[in-house]
Fold this protein.
Amino acid sequence: MSEVRRSHVVQLVTINAIWGFNIVAVKLSADRFPPVFLAFLRFLIVALAVWPWLRVRHGEMRWLLTAAACSGGLQFALMYSGVALSESMSAVAIGGQLGVPFATLLSVLLLGERIH
């Protein structure tokens, strides 16, 4: 097994710090703006950032936009609504991290997946 480089540890700590400050920024924003507006603003910024690389796929855009609205816009609108109502951001942060274990449990129960 190889040793972890110091630069990798610095990168990991930096990424985690950025994510932590993201949670703080979300809470401060949710206290000042409506949750649906925050979700719209988030996706507007992402759309502007990736605009040069977007391509129209004829016959597939309706499904793509529907999937994006449900998995992105709706998810973040609900998350921001929860943040706005929450007294404790630690509960929101922990709840947000439970997505992977619950998705795994649901895949086993509903889809018959095997974990190995």
